[in-house]
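Practice problem 4.
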């Protein structure tokens, strides 16, 4: 029946949530995880991958999606040294394929991964959520932003925020001076042209994550931002293995991106391999905070989103994305157990209703 429900897990050393708990979430299929201590650009060794796989499978969960195998900055910058890192990336793909991995999520954002101005905004009900305030961000320097993210992280590492990169902020910004959107897009296409043949050989699908938020910041280019841009690199390397992680909260932060429509469009092309489903509430043209998954808590219609996923006959992987911090839980911002599990229960409910109604077992 349809999609496979997954849950992001940060590994045995760096996640407060045991696999045994994840196993008890209704309808769960597997976890989405990664090896976090291998420097970006290096090959993930087979034995480390199999060790992780065993841990996950021993807990009764599937190990089929990796989030993320990060892309070395030299590849994004298009430096001559990129070829070495691309070779390494290919080897990592082959090694993951041997362990039965089917989908690799990655992103192509220069310097920073996702960005927020507050990692623990308190809502009236006492829950804490992440917030992005565009006006506030515009007044921060990149250094100040990094400091505030690190301060808000509650001692947990933040996904995509590798410290090595952030230590070289100035020189990185210098290197990106001549890279505009088009150049970055060409560098992405070069990367895909090289790795997709390997993916085809070993049956591993690439699923690029949209930029979060989906617009340029601090003068750095961003390319995974809207339908037009996404279509460019999907068509440039026209293979079903060159696909998307469609993240509702990231892409949807730009009000011009109509999420149900994008799901239908790229879904019909057969290019969505992984769905991240979450809700946000707009507080300004480009400002928002994250909410529970419930439609009435945020600005998105989650029924329409799940219906679009249903209508494309989605058989890929899906996970709740960030959730609130509730019930006194202490965890990595956005990645507590409770609210993401509530999100799963809710998405499962929407799905069951849509499925039964659509198959005419019940009357709309
Ligand atoms: O939860 C998310 O989707 C984001 O927080 C990213 O960290 C995302 O995992 C990466 O950008 C994907 O490469
Ligand atoms: Fe996401």
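Answer key:
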């Amino acid at each position: 029946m349809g999609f496979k429900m997954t849950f992001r897990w940060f590994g045995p050393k760096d996640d407060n949530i045991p696999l045994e708990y994840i196993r008890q979430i209704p309808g769960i299929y597997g976890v989405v995880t990664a090896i976090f201590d291998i420097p970006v650009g290096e090959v993930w060794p087979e034995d480390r991958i199999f060790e992780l796989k065993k841990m996950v499978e021993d807990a009764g969960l599937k190990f089929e999606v990796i989030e993320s195998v990060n892309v070395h900055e030299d590849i994004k910058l298009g430096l001559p040294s990129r070829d070495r890192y691309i070779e390494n990336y290919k080897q990592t793909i082959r090694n993951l394929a041997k362990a039965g991995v089917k989908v690799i999520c990655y992103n192509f954002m220069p310097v920073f991964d996702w960005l927020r101005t507050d990692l623990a905004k308190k809502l009236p009900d006492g829950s804490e959520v992440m917030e992005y305030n565009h006006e506030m961000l515009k007044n921060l320097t990149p250094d100040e932003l990094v400091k505030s993210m690190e301060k808000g992280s509650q001692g947990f590492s933040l996904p995509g925020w590798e410290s090595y990169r952030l230590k070289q902020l100035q020189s990185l910004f210098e290197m990106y001076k001549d890279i505009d959107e088009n150049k970055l897009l060409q560098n992405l296409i070069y990367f895909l042209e090289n790795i997709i043949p390997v993916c085809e050989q070993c049956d591993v699908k690439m699923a690029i994550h949209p930029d979060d938020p989906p617009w340029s910041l601090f003068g750095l280019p961003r390319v995974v931002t809207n339908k037009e841009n996404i279509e460019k690199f999907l068509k440039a390397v026209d293979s079903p293995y060159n696909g998307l992680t469609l993240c509702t909260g990231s892409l949807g932060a730009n009000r011009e991106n109509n999420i149900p429509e994008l799901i239908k469009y790229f879904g019909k092309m057969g290019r969505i391999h992984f769905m991240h489903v979450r809700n946000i509430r707009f507080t300004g043209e480009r400002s928002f905070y994250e909410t529970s998954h419930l439609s009435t808590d945020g600005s998105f219609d989650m029924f329409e989103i799940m219906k679009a996923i249903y209508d494309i006959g989605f058989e890929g992987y899906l996970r709740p994305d960030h959730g609130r911090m509730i019930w006194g839980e202490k965890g990595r911002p956005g990645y507590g157990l409770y609210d993401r599990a509530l999100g799963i229960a809710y998405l499962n409910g929407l799905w069951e209703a849509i499925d039964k109604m659509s198959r005419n077992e019940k009357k709309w």
